[in-house]
Amino acid sequence: MALNFERLVRFRDSQGQIHYGEAHSNDKLVGTQVPIYAGSVPWDLRRTTQTAEVVEVLCPLPSVPIIYGIGMNYKGHIEEVKFPVPRHPVIFTKPPDALAGPYDAIPIDSSCTNLDYEGELCVIIGTDCKNFIKTTDNPLDYVLGYSIGNDVSSRFWQEPPQSGNQHGYAKSFDKFAPIGPVIASAEAIASQHRMQGGDPDLQLRTLVNGEERQNSRTSDLLFGLSDILEHLSRGTTVRRGTVIMTGTPKGVAAFMEPPRWLRSGDVVQVEIEGIGKIKNTMVIA
Fold it and tell me: What CATH superfamily classification does 67-284 receive?
């Protein structure tokens, strides 16, 4: 889809006003002056001649209709968990209130034990999509851009005695889906990074308190965007503004020996080349 932006940041300025702006290519956002767009939603923006100072970086989407997660989608992660290779994308959902900003503290209910991180490449849908056919349709016609996410998960609520093997509940608590810091357009990513089968090949790293836990490339995905869109949109409208968290690579806490669960005060940073970094502190009640 045709877009005005390359790296879109949503932010609050020194007067408390919220804008969309064109972020610079480096990681420093706060304190910079950026060109701003007119408009309140990222798929309907117009360039202006104005600039504003970034005082606070906000979630790049003010709200979402739904968040889709894709489980078991990195080959290294499938080997790590020792589960059969899925024949189709494994789908779960997160509700709209799971959305959080790139630097928000994440409030954790005390019942959400065995807390884990999952660094992920996120795809933001910019045009409604239904009955996508991967052999004839171009997925980028429906993509607003890419962002970074952390699929925060309570493994206690994911265990079969609590979940009945339905693990969406474990991932659906308020603010369990921080994303950001920008939305990078598909065109901007493709112009600067290697593509593989129409999908970007980007390094993804997750750090906990500065210690590297995950380090992989998005080219390790089992199902690419065309596979995911075909599966998600079969008889179903995937609405504009939907976030698709495309899966996490190996290195999650649950499969370390022993598991190294997140604790209150832990800082989880997820970074993807070409997009930036998100950094969230876990705060357990």
Answer: Fumarylacetoacetase-like, C-terminal domain (3.90.850.10)
